[in-house]
Design brief:
five-stranded mixed β-sheet; mainly beta
Length: 779
């Protein structure tokens, strides 16, 4: 039985000088547990002198407040025994734990100088200060205190939880403001206000002691749950930023894998794990909202033995949800009462609401888990087991039905006999002497053996197949080796051509068990003819058949010998040759088979192919599509191929670096080919004044040589060209690069002289150039 108890609401603050209340809600602490017979055991506190007493070792209230311990039968109808526990001052009972003999360990706080202790205990006397912790072992029938000790310093101390490990040793966690001992070999945060102590079951030997916290000398968390697991790992949870003292939880140790490494507002929960004998920090993290003050109004939450804490919380406190009825307590998607929640969830109270979180530290002492590639299969059924159990364990596999076992990590097992097998994996942690197991069922179905036979009529291309499986299949799939299939149980099939064929049968049962068999079938003694061919006009082709004892080829025209298996054919046009073949089968039957093959004759002169381009002139770095225009069923190749994206495409992309002529050629198996070319001119991206040329002399004398003054420049896209005489008169101008000055001005021939010219040009690459110079006119 796991019990979560927590108040979540306003508590009365009690501050008499002799009060044991240090944390908010301490007066509501206590713990309930159930023994192996279902009896209910409770530890708490009472100020009632008339608290019901039955047979206990102390039936009188000793001070204003005593701890009380009592036990009910399973249905709470009978109080089996009850007792006060304390001295003449205030005492409180916070926690209890049952050992294997059902004796009861109780822990709490006391201000009594005469709290009952036993001879030889660790601390038989009160240490002084505001309070001491204590641990008492009570006989299972409540009639006596077996062992009891104080545990504290000269300052404030209280024990809030008690736990036993599998060896029966006793652990307590509590708060201190004094110098609690730190033994050698333990993890500690010196000068911190939380302690963990381990002692033997007689409470007379200290086994280790340590403190943890932020080193500020004061308690920083109020413990709310405590566990020592079967591997003696030690778990603590508590809430921080004490409402009474206001001490924040900032600066507590956290591990690199903490889910919340910062304390936020200093009022978050704190979760802490130490390894065996407190030798090292295993895990530590904060948990809570960024603004609200999470806490517990007394009460006790629990860990289970696998290191999972179930924590009740006063959440969303402080009015941070008052405006929108959302608080900042972290919730998981789909948690109740909301669905698909994000970091906020709807609340019913404008201040505190009860929250619960379950946190798995994932430090199980033994955790059996495995998967397999399939839960059912057909004999022989091969199963690969994958072990996901905790590391550092020993493993024992039982494969079911008294079958063999294995101790390896990931075994492989083949089941040959049909049936249901209950497979179990037992995992043992030898360090903790803890085992865990997990089981599953595997179903093995009867397998199937595919088999068939076939018959063929004499001299026929048909085959009749018959299923002869030992176990009747549920479905059949035949592949006759020529692209044809069937799902009949006993199909027949007619082959279009003679040859050797692989007949495949896949048989399946209703559970999906399948088997495959392949048988070769040779129809008509394997008589075959060579496939169709293509040749160039004027070429020869060797016809050929295999098998048979005699042959007759038609038409015989153009054949070297129509009565042999492999005549030489010299057709002048496309021709289909048919051969009649006689062969003898295994039964001695003489069979005749007629086969044919086609020889296609290609006349290269009839092939049409041209090459074109989208752009025959491009700039450096540009591309263009080039095209082969011909029969698209043909295979082509372009050369050179270095600047093409696909040399076999009918429309490749060309990116030549320089002017290039591309040749496209038809590639034909017959050797018949034809080509075409296309040239792509590449303009340079360079365009400078030096690239514009104007001659220094021209002779417009009508002899047809150098009669016109032109501007030359391959990269010019726009031009303004003007010529001036020595008096500055403009004698010629043009914006057309194809036009020039012929030496005529005002309809008359200009006299020989020196003329000035001026050019303003724009290049294809966008450059703009200006240039001027002189030209001499000669006649």
């Amino acid at each position: 039985v796991m019990v979560l108890t927590s108040a979540c609401g306003p508590a009365s603050f009690e501050y008499p000088l002799d009060s044991l209340q240090f944390n908010y809600g301490d007066q509501y602490r206590g713990e309930i547990n159930v023994d192996k017979f279902g009896n209910v055991v409770v530890a708490s506190s009472s100020r009632s002198a008339n608290f019901p007493m039955v047979g206990g070792f102390d039936n009188t209230l000793g001070g204003q407040q005593d701890a009380v311990v009592f036990k009910f039968n399973p249905n709470l109808t009978t109080l089996l025994w009850s007792s006060f526990l304390g001295g003449s001052d205030n005492d409180a009972g916070y926690a209890l734990y049952l050992d294997d003999s059902l004796n009861i360990y109780v822990a709490g706080g006391t201000r009594s100088l005469n709290f009952p202790t036993t001879a030889g205990c660790l601390k038989p006397a009160y240490s002084g200060g505001k309070a001491d912790g204590y641990i008492s072992k009570i006989k299972k029938d409540g009639t006596a205190i077996l062992f009891s000790t104080y545990w504290g310093t000269a300052s404030y101390d209280q024990c809030y939880f008690v736990q036993l490990d599998r060896n029966g040793d006793v652990y307590v966690v509590g708060q201190t403001q004094g110098a609690m001992p730190i033994t050698s070999g333990v993890y500690s945060n010196p000068n911190s206000g939380q302690f963990i102590t381990k002692m033997n079951d007689s409470l007379n030997t200290l086994m280790f002691s340590t403190v943890f916290g932020n080193g500020n000398g004061l308690p920083t968390i109020s413990p709310s749950a405590f566990l020592v697991d079967d591997c003696q790992n030690i778990y603590v949870t508590g809430w921080g930023g004490n409402i009474i003292t206001g001490i924040p939880t900032t600066g507590m140790p956290v591990t690199p894998n903490a889910i919340q490494p910062l304390s936020g507002d200093g009022f978050n929960f704190y979760l802490f794990v130490l390894s065996t004998d407190a030798s090292s920090l295993f895990y530590a993290t904060y948990f809570g909202g960024a603004l609200s003050h999470e806490h517990v109004d007394g009460g006790t939450s629990r860990f289970d033995k696998k290191g999972i804490v179930y924590q009740s919380v006063c959440a969303g406190c402080g009015g941070f949800n008052a405006s929108n009825q959302h608080d900042d307590f972290p919730v998981t998607p789909g948690s109740w009462p909301n669905t698909g929640a994000d970091v906020n969830h709807n609340t019913q109270n404008f201040n505190c609401n009860n929250g619960v979180f379950k946190f798995d530290f994932q430090i199980p002492p033994a955790n059996a888990s495995f998967t397999l590639d399939s839960l059912a299969g057909c004999a022989p059924f091969k199963v690969n087991f994958t072990n996901h159990s905790s590391a550092w364990q020993s493993y024992l596999w039982n494969f079911g039905n008294g079958d063999t076992t294995s101790t390896i990590l990931n075994p492989i097992k083949t089941y040959t006999v049909p049936g249901t097998y209950h497979v179990t994996l037992i995992v043992k942690n030898s360090v903790c002497d803890v085992t865990d197991s997990v089981s599953t069922n595997i179903t093995v179905y009867p397998g199937i053996t595919a088999d068939f036979n076939f018959t063929t009529p004499p001299c026929s291309d048909s085959v009749y197949c018959f299923d002869s499986s030992a176990v009747a299949p549920f479905s059949w799939f035949w592949n006759f080796g020529d692209g044809q299939t069937s799902t009949l149980q006993n199909p027949s099939h007619l082959y279009a051509t003679s040859g050797m064929y692989d007949i495949t049968l896949i048989s399946k049962t209703n559970h999906g068990c399948a088997d495959t068999i392949l048988v070769q079938f040779n129809n008509l003694l394997g008589v075959t003819i060579n496939p169709n061919a293509t040749i160039c006009l004027g070429s020869n082709h060797q016809l050929n058949v295999t098998g048979g004892i005699s042959y007759n080829w038609l038409p015989s025209t153009g054949l070297s010998n129509p009565s042999i298996a492999n005549p030489l054919a010299s057709p002048t046009s496309t021709t289909t040759y048919t051969v009649s073949i006689k062969a003898v089968n295994a039964n001695g039957d003489t069979c005749t088979k007629t086969l044919s093959t086609k020889v296609t004759v290609v006349d290269p002169s009839m092939i049409s192919i041209t090459a074109t381009a989208d752009k025959d002139t491009i700039r450096e770095g540009e591309s263009t599509l080039i095209h082969a225009i011909t029969d698209t069923t043909l295979t082509i190749v372009w050369t050179p191929g270095a600047s093409l994206d696909n040399v076999n495409s009918f429309n490749p992309t060309a990116t030549p670096a320089t002017t290039t002529t591309y040749t496209v050629t038809i590639v034909d198996s017959s050797g018949c080919s034809k080509s075409a070319t296309v040239t792509i001119y590449v303009r340079s991206n360079k365009c400078e004044v030096a690239d514009i040329f104007v001659p220094n002399t021209f002779t417009p004398n009508g002899d047809g040589a150098n009669d016109v003054l032109y501007v030359r420049g391959n990269e010019i896209s726009e031009l303004y060209f003007a010529v001036y005489n020595r008096w500055g008169e403009k004698v010629f101008e043009t914006t057309d690069i194809t036009k020039g000055w012929n030496g005529i001005y005002h309809g008359m021939k200009a006299d020989p002289a020196v003329f000035a010219w001026y050019i303003k040009a724009k290049c294809f690459n966008g450059n703009e150039l200006k240039k001027q110079g002189n030209i001499t006119l000669l006649r």
